[in-house]
Amino acid sequence: MTTNIDQLIVDLCKWVAQFSDDYLASNFPVVAQFLHDYPIITNLIWIFVCIAPLMVVFLTFFAIATWLERKGLARIQNRIGPNRTGPLGLFQPVADGIKMLLKEDITPRSSDRLAHFLAPVILLVPAFTILSLLPINRNMTAAAVDTGLILFFAIGSVSTLSIFLAGWSSRNKYSLLGGMRAIAQMVSYEIPLVLSAVTVIMLTGSLDTSRIVSAQQLSSWVESSNPWLQILGQIVKWNVFTPYGFCGFLIFFVASLAEVNRCPFDIPEGESEIVAGHLTEYSGFKYALFFMAEYVSAFAINGLTVTLFLGGWSGPNIRPWGSDDPNALLIPGFVWFFAKMFFLMLIMIWIRGTLPRLRVDHLMGFAWKFLLPLALINIFVAGFYYYTPWYIGWPFGFAVNYACYELLGKLNRPTTISSKRTYHYAT
Amino acid sequence: MLGIGIIKGMAVTAKNFFGSFVSKKWLPTVQYPEAGNTITAFSRNIPFLVYDKEDSPLETMRCVACKICEKECPPQCIYIVQEKDANGKLLKRPRIFDIDISVCMGCQICVEMCPFESIKMDSVFELSSENRFEGLLLHRENLLKSNSYYHQIHPQEAQEVDDRLAAKQKKAAATAAATTPSTPAP
User: How many Å apart are CA B157 and CA B123, to the nearest integer?
Assistant: First the structure.
């Protein structure tokens, strides 16, 4: 069987499907007939087969990410971080999980019990569902939908609802404040998030995530026989190297930080202001579910950033020696995809170690007065870039975007500071 | 440029991150139970009682059971009972000298009040005990530590105390010498 290394899992899946079909048809014709008559059962089985690996992989990533975050933050703060459980504290996520499982699961007496229980579950469902829309490799999208991007944003915004559900059902003022902050923040940041993605949709002409990725490969170079051209061809057309893509990437990344409640936009659970926001009344495994959903949705949104701007699963990659198949790749595409996803995750951790939490009014002002106009201008730049040759569109687009960036910064600066601030107690 | 401050801040944290792998300056953590801990000459924890001669702690202890420290102690963690001899005469030495280190807050007021330089601050810190009542009540025998130990943990301070005591003795000897001639010579 001549197969590409990167298509190994896809081929294996097809083979298992074929084999199980044949096996059932020859040995259990009744079952085969039943599955044929009720295709929904087959579909459900296939959905499970597609989702189960995603769940396993991303829960492992969640564990790795918590460990990375704790170690990375510790190093930034000149500490060592967890080092008691296993080598380098690698089993810390396991210990955390066991601790969370064994803790008492408290539901406040006056809370809305059903909503209180449902909130973490509802948060987890969209977090995992949107994962299935990401093209992890060529032909490796768990749910290959033509309008994948729309579906991603639509399902992803359900998490706002569940965070408010958590805040509302806890019957606690801090929880409610946290939920309201979450709504305000996530609805505001949804707009620059989507608007910066619009540029990519405009220039690709498709909402299909796998087509967005394949549009970021220079196929004439990738199919050439020169390995250097093959490597370059998989990189040069990434959207992040275009003016609209670079600006869009920054806007998208900042807005995605706010969407998944990461520092410095973690005011819904700002522990220095409102105890733990919507998490105040949660304990035990429900609390763990919230954290899991937070990390998984962070991974999902990073996966979308990678798909839209960083070339998805394409990376500096060459064909295996002696292979003539233009689609063959030496390193499987999902390795690059996950590597880029973890790279963005590390930047998120780095930002968390650096920046303090924003004030509420600063947060809203940043979304509405800075990111939104910039994203709108970016759409015009993308249109301009589309209709001009690259040697005009590229420098001009960058210049316009940079000028608008500085101008918006100037406009947002408070014009008059009434008087010089005096410090009575500090010298 | 707008946003340059964020990049500067990120550079600082990156420096701390990578520095922690190469330099002790960026990672001062001591892996305590495995690597032990270094006690500086300035560390102060709980009080102890000083005695002078290694072989006879009870006879050469400086404490005279004047109970000033007991009275001054803000959380009142010191308990002193003066010793009596067989005839019921009070001796200048405590029979019981207890410090409840679960109450002691290490304020060092007893040290400052003591006119006999007999109570000083120790720098031990591994004081945990399995019994939180009896185990944390230190008796006279636990508290008595020699002057050489004091020299070992706080050398500079101990030398100053020794000099002060020597000066006091010299002065006492001088006054004694000054008063001696006034007594009628045989």
Answer: 13
Confidence tier at A234 by pLDDT (50, 70, 90): confident
Report the distance separating Cα A120 and Cα B70, nearest Å. Answer: 58
Q: What is the pLDDT of residues A127-136, one digit of tens each?
A: 888 888 888 8
- N- to C-terminal Cα separation, chain B: 99
Task: Give how far the C-alpha of residue A188 lies from the chain's centroid of Cα atoms, to the nearest Å.
Answer: 18
With beta carbons less than 8 A apart as the criterion, state whether A277 and A182 touch.
yes
Domains of chain B by start residue, with CATH: 47-172 (3.30.70.3270)
CB proximity B7 to A under 8 Å: no
Which residue of B3, B14, B27 is in closest CB contact with A80?
B27
The H or E element containing residue A41 is helix A39-76
A12 compared with B136, residue with greater pLDDT: B136
Query: At which residue do the structure tokens 């084999």 appear?
Result: A19
Task: Provide the CB-side half-sphere exposure for A239 (13 A, CA).
Answer: 32
List pLDDT tens digits, range A361-414. Answer: 888 888 998 999 999 999 999 988 889 888 888 888 889 999 999 898 888 887
Distance in angstroms (rounded) separating the CA atoms of residues B97 and B65: 8
Closest CA to A377 of A364, A396, A350, A358: A396
Report whether pLDDT(B186) > 60.
no
pLDDT of residue A1: 42
Residue of B nearest to A74 (CA): B17
Q: Is there a contact between B10 and A351 if contact means CB atoms under 8 Å apart?
A: yes
ipTM for the predicted complex comes to 0.77
Angle between helices A29-37 and A39-76 (to 10 degrees): 80
* Strand-strand pairing, B90-100 and B78-84: antiparallel
Closest CA to A294 of A371, A136, A186: A186
For every residue of A380-401, DSSP letters joined together read: HHHHHHHHS-HHHHHHHHHHHH
Chain B residues in contact with A374 by the CB 8 A cut-off are none
pLDDT at A421: 72
Distance CA(A142)–CA(A53), nearest Å, equals: 10
